[in-house]
Specification:
alpha/beta, 6-stranded mixed β-sheet, 5-stranded mixed β-sheet, 36% helix
Length: 343
């Protein structure tokens, strides 16, 4: 497990702590009541709510406590999909503004903490067993240094873990909203296509669930690739990105194969970018909702070839171990771990 530094503490709490953790994303809110002991967490109960069925997070947490009246955690920690500033957060893909003080008042708890969901993911990664990780690149596992995390899902999250020589300090970024970078003529066409509807084209506009659908529509509308009737029906019936990626994995539609090829290439480029910016020789983790679902595609050569195509720094990026986080509850686990150590 990865050693974490907690401010004001020499190590993580060794006393069992009961924490209500939440992972607030653009589509759903996951709750878990954990009994945290060191870097081990026992799940006492869990619940899920669809964000868009509620007017606010306060109404969701009130619903949770109404449904579980006997739950009395020692602290509440919420990982949120957006920047946390002075205890408040603007939820990027949900158009909600939440505050720790408001939630504490509504829930009747004094200790409520908000952290960015990718910061929570970093804490969660530190607690994961080896069986929750799949290695894409062995690299130099003995190297000590910073760690980078890239997490495509409803949006694109990015975070880092600073190595101080003894332990790691997780920190959030909003790197997913940085500018999209074009390398090829097709990339330039894709940029222009997205720029018709988006004032600033960001990495997230490609490297996310909605991004997969954008690339698909670009190939259909601009590159005139054929859309099979059965695929059009599947896209209407379910989450478009899931239908597209599943067809790519099965190899049943050329347009889906090409969509995911473009996605993999840009995920590889952005992974290398983050490794270089953070000098993350300690490792790169692919987290979020998408990577576990497309592990078969990630294990092919498209992603790694794009990752290694970084000009003069190939030797450095090649030395970095790359792992896929298969446990989608990592941000929830991380919120619990963080909450247990910030009483």
């Amino acid at each position: 497990m990865i050693p974490i530094a907690f401010y004001g503490k020499s190590k993580a709490s060794s006393e069992p702590v009961t924490v209500l953790a939440a992972d607030l994303g653009g589509t759903k809110v996951n709750f878990a009541l954990y009994k945290v002991n060191g870097q081990q967490a026992e799940t006492l109960l869990s619940a899920k709510y669809h964000s868009r069925n509620y007017l606010s997070f306060v109404s969701i947490i009130q619903a949770f406590f109404a449904e579980h009246p006997g739950v009395k955690p020692q602290s509440i920690c919420i990982g949120v999909a957006g920047p946390v500033i002075n205890g408040s957060a603007d939820i990027t893909n949900l158009n909600w503004i939440i505050s720790a003080d408001e939630i504490a008042k509504a829930a009747g708890y004094e200790k409520v903490t908000l952290i960015n969901d990718l910061e929570a993911t970093a804490y969660g990664v530190a607690c994961l067993p080896d069986e929750d990780l799949v290695t894409l690149n062995e690299g130099d596992a003995s190297a000590k240094g910073n760690i980078a995390i890239v997490a495509p899902g409803t949006g694109l999250g990015e975070a880092g873990m600073f190595w101080d020589g003894k332990a790691y300090h997780p920190f959030a970024t909003e790197g997913g909203h940085t500018d999209f970078g074009a390398r090829t003529e097709v990339d330039i066409e894709l940029y222009r296509y997205i720029n018709q509807t988006e004032k600033v084209v960001s990495r997230e506009h490609v490297l996310s669930g909605p991004g997969i659908f954008r690339v698909y529509n670009f190939l259909k509308e601009v590159k005139k690739m054929q859309e099979p009737v059965w695929l059009a029906e599947a896209i209407k019936a379910e989450d478009p990105s899931a239908a597209i990626s599943n067809a790519a994995i099965a190899g049943t539609a050329d347009i889906c194969i090409e969509t995911m090829k473009i996605f993999m290439q840009h995920l590889g480029h952005e992974s290398a970018n983050l490794v270089l910016k953070m000098k993350a020789i300690g490792g790169l983790y692919l987290a979020g909702g998408i990577p576990p679902k497309i592990i078969k595609l990630l294990q092919q050569d498209t992603y790694l070839k794009a990752y290694l195509n970084c000009d003069r720094m190939q030797e450095l990026v090649q030395s970095v171990p790359i792992k896929v986080v298969m446990n989608e509850k990592a941000p929830l686990l991380g919120a619990g771990y963080y909450g247990a150590n910030h009483l």
